[in-house]
Amino acid sequence: MTQSFEEIAEAICARCGGKCCHEAHPPLSPARVASLRAQGVPLSAFEYTGYTRFRSHENGMCVMCTGGKCRIHAFKPETCVAGPFTFEVRDHTLHLFLKHESLCPLVPYLKGDEKAYTTQYRMAVERLTALVRTLPGSELEVINGIPEPDTELIAEIPLDPGRVLIP
Ligand code: SF4
Ligand code: SF4
Question: Where are the domains of the chain?
């Protein structure tokens, strides 16, 4: 039986063990924090370092990661859903980056499957656009200052409503 993109991605991520959850610190909008709190995530899971994010354990893994798996899979922050795409915002434009294969074993699979790539690209654009529209401007500025090494720029998408380009 043919496996869906989600099933294949899940298997690749399970083998990887959550590399992207190490020192991940996904940004959390006020609405996302409220929704996570309503799901029972304790206040102690969050920290503020110029923007609100999840803490990491001493070993660097995200506090929401247990045994290589995300404990809040159904409520994951936008940047976690968008991976291995990542972003920054400059001049009202969403700059979308793709991580190098050395960082994420899902990348070679996506590059080899146009349908899967398009599906994940669209998801990333949708979620990241929603995130940047709900983050306080001062927090977005701090997030923009975080370097994105080992990535390639793959799209520049105007954030003006109605002009978001999704291929
Ligand atoms: S998205 Fe990439 S880095 Fe993250 S768990 Fe999956 S394969 Fe690993
Ligand atoms: S929220 Fe989940 S997917 Fe995101 S970094 Fe933490 S454990 Fe990983």
Answer: 5-158
pLDDT given at position 68:
83
Instruction: Check if the beta carbon of residue 103 is closer than 8 Å to that of residue 150.
Output: yes
pTM above 0.85, yes or no: yes
Residues of the chain with pLDDT under 70: 1, 161-167
Q: Yes or no: say if 24 and 64 are a contact pair by the CB < 8 Å rule.
A: no
Of ligand 2's listed atoms, the one at least distance from the Cα of 83 is 3
Nearest Cα residue to atom 4 of ligand 1: 20
Tokens representing 111 are 């590059």
pLDDT the model gives residue 160: 74
Q: What residues have CB less than 8 Å from 66, skipping those under 6 apart?
A: none
Q: Is 22 in the pocket of ligand 1 (CB under 6 A)?
A: no
Site to substitute for ligand 1 among 12, 101, 150, most atoms within 8 A of C-beta? 12
Note the pLDDT of residue 164: 44
Contact residues for 70 (Cβ-Cβ < 8 A; gap 6+): 18, 21, 62, 64, 76, 80
Structure tokens at 85: 């795409």
